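Z., the sequence and structure:
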Amino acid sequence: MDGYQIINEMIDPKLEMIQFFIKRTRNHIKLVQKYCKKIFDYDPIKFSEILNNSENHDESKFTWPEKEPYLYITWSYKCKDAGKKFEIPEHMKNKMNDATNHHVKTNNHHPEFYSDKKVELINKEDRDQPIKEIIDATKMPDINIAEMVADWCAMSEEKGTGPIDWAKKNINVRWKFNEKQVKLIYELISNIWK
């Protein structure tokens, strides 16, 4: 094996990860925008800002400190969904957690954005499971709840699942919402989902 082959074998996997990350993330943003449009069409007065807000959805994933760790996060989900083993480099594990904490504290469509907690907001062992303490999202405005619902619908479409299942699994388990917020979440899901 010559040096060129060795370099290609070292670069190609990361190049494939980068290409997949860009394609998947751009597709996710388009899906969120699709569901934000449905929310706007459902109630254009209450959600007049949602289309503008969705223009910047998840853009922080393309910049420091999120970009490189999100390559690994996205790739690990791809492998998990395909039933393939992917060993995350040890040096990347903390960076992935830090990037996700940064993401949820930077983007107001995540309930963690409204938490006063400064510690870990994401479960290090399983990112899809709650942390030990419930996150208080009761300060989350309706417009951001609407974008969160659009995000849940986009993820559900990508994974072939349903946002109702995600909502039941997480509302007042992972994130604390008040009655009015819970009603809005289910109202939006039932009116925009597919």
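The first helix runs from residue 3 to 42. The first strand starts at residue 135 and ends at 136.

Let me know what you think.
H.
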